[in-house]
């Protein structure tokens, strides 16, 4: 192979030799194949680094897509309207009109809407399952006033019974809904006996037990009574009320703009609508946070891989000093030795990059399958990963190749 060095007839051309790129490739391949165990261990660092790089970007994109999907189903369809009338006047105890549910539900895109607020009981009043109870756990139970529309907007999951409706609102019925944990705390396990609870001196019939809510999880920790009943018994809210609105996907922003005017055309400033945040900015923020964290780990893996390649290549240079000296004696120049060792390290880096890319893609698919997600991998990531492995190998082999190129033939052959 080395007989392909061409020498000129004169002394000037005798110092100049040529080494064809096919010879460089052949010699580099032989140098890698002849030491399979060392080549495998050397490429392992690049495999881990590039694999981490691909897996991180793929899992980040997949997680962001999943978050965006869940956001669209729940958060993107939720609008909250706050009663801020007391910031403008002291003469409006409740800015929401009595028919607030109907007014908002007439807006395009609204599914359910209703007013709710925490009830502040008078001193000494508490919630119990018996008419006489000592002060204790019952005094810590929260009572929540909510219209039937607010209950449905929370998207509850019933375990037993039923929800109260507009008839209960209109006729101010003394009925209550309980979360499953609250029902156990009050000793209520079934509704077949038509159980009742006592809020102060008032008796409320429990008509439903809720096992879960998809919005306003605090409702599970409270006794829920009709808004109209609470307003008659305990008066308007002392700290303001909220309206919970569930919308169709894509309608939340428009509903947030229209709701204050629909509720109070005379004083829309009494109500403050809070639309859901932009899903694109949320996904971008999640993407950025996850990428910064895990790309740092991938960079560490790549650095470790580069150090491994550099160390192994440097050891190979020291072990092959005699071979390098013989090549130099046969006419190889420093740049030929430099190119050979650079190609060896580059081949190891590229091979590690290809294997790491495959493992990274498989990791993304495996995690997505286990979590029932849709895997998302950018094509640019797949194409760029092997190039990163190649670049890592070349940079790692630069110093060892430079050391090999500086080996003097006479000193090498003496060893």
From TrEMBL:
<dbReference type="Pfam" id="PF02687">
    <property type="entry name" value="FtsX"/>
</dbReference>
<keyword id="KW-1003">Cell membrane</keyword>
<feature type="transmembrane region" description="Helical">
    <location>
        <begin position="348"/>
        <end position="370"/>
    </location>
</feature>
<feature type="domain" description="MacB-like periplasmic core">
    <location>
        <begin position="40"/>
        <end position="254"/>
    </location>
</feature>
<feature type="transmembrane region" description="Helical">
    <location>
        <begin position="376"/>
        <end position="399"/>
    </location>
</feature>
<dbReference type="GO" id="GO:0022857">
    <property type="term" value="F:transmembrane transporter activity"/>
</dbReference>
<dbReference type="InterPro" id="IPR025857">
    <property type="entry name" value="MacB_PCD"/>
</dbReference>
<dbReference type="InterPro" id="IPR003838">
    <property type="entry name" value="ABC3_permease_C"/>
</dbReference>
<keyword id="KW-0472">Membrane</keyword>
<comment type="similarity">
    <text>Belongs to the ABC-4 integral membrane protein family.</text>
</comment>
<keyword id="KW-1133">Transmembrane helix</keyword>
<protein>
    <submittedName>
        <fullName>ABC transporter</fullName>
    </submittedName>
</protein>
<dbReference type="GO" id="GO:0005886">
    <property type="term" value="C:plasma membrane"/>
</dbReference>
<keyword id="KW-0812">Transmembrane</keyword>
<feature type="transmembrane region" description="Helical">
    <location>
        <begin position="293"/>
        <end position="318"/>
    </location>
</feature>
<dbReference type="InterPro" id="IPR050250">
    <property type="entry name" value="Macrolide_Exporter_MacB"/>
</dbReference>
<feature type="domain" description="ABC3 transporter permease C-terminal">
    <location>
        <begin position="296"/>
        <end position="409"/>
    </location>
</feature>
<dbReference type="Pfam" id="PF12704">
    <property type="entry name" value="MacB_PCD"/>
</dbReference>
<feature type="transmembrane region" description="Helical">
    <location>
        <begin position="41"/>
        <end position="64"/>
    </location>
</feature>
């Amino acid at each position: 192979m080395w007989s392909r060095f061409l020498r000129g007839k004169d002394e000037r051309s005798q110092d100049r030799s040529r080494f064809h790129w096919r010879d460089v490739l052949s010699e580099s391949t032989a140098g890698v194949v002849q030491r399979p165990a060392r080549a495998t261990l050397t490429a392992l660092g690049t495999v881990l680094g590039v694999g981490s790089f691909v897996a991180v970007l793929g899992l980040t994109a997949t997680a962001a897509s999943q978050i965006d999907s869940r956001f669209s189903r729940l958060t993107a369809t939720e609008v909250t309207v706050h009663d801020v009338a007391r910031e403008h006047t002291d003469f409006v105890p409740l800015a929401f009109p009595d028919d607030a549910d109907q007014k908002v539900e007439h807006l395009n895109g609204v599914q359910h809407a209703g007013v709710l607020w925490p009830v502040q009981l008078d001193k000494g009043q508490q919630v119990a399952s018996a008419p006489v109870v000592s002060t204790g756990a019952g005094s810590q139970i929260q009572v929540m006033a909510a219209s039937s529309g607010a209950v449905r907007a929370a998207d509850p999951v019933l375990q037993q019974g039923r929800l109260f409706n507009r008839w209960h609102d209109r006729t101010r019925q003394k009925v209550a809904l309980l979360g499953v944990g609250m029902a156990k705390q009050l000793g209520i396990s079934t509704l077949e006996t038509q159980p009742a609870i006592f809020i102060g001196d008032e008796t409320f019939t429990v008509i439903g037990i809720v096992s879960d809510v998809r919005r306003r999880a605090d409702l599970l920790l409270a006794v829920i009574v009709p808004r109209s009943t609470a307003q008659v018994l305990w008066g308007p809210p002392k700290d303001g009320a909220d309206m919970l609105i569930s919308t169709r996907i894509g309608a939340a922003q428009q509903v947030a703009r229209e709701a204050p005017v629909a509720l109070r055309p005379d004083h829309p400033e009494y109500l403050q609508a809070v639309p859901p945040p932009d899903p694109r900015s949320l996904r971008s923020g999640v993407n950025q946070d996850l990428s910064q964290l895990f790309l740092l780990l991938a960079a560490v893996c790549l650095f470790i891989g580069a150090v491994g390649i550099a160390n192994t290549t440097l050891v190979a240079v020291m072990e092959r000093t005699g071979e390098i000296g013989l090549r130099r004696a046969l006419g190889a120049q420093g740049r030929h030795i430099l190119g050979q060792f650079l190609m060896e390290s580059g081949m190891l880096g590229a091979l590690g990059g290809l294997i790491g890319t495959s493992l990274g893609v498989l990791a993304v698919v495996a995690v997505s399958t286990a979590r029932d997600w849709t895997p998302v991998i950018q094509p640019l990531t797949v194409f760029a990963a092997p190039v990163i492995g190649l670049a890592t190998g070349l940079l790692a082999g630069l110093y060892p190749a430079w050391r090999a190129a500086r080996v003097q033939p006479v000193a090498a052959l003496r060893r």
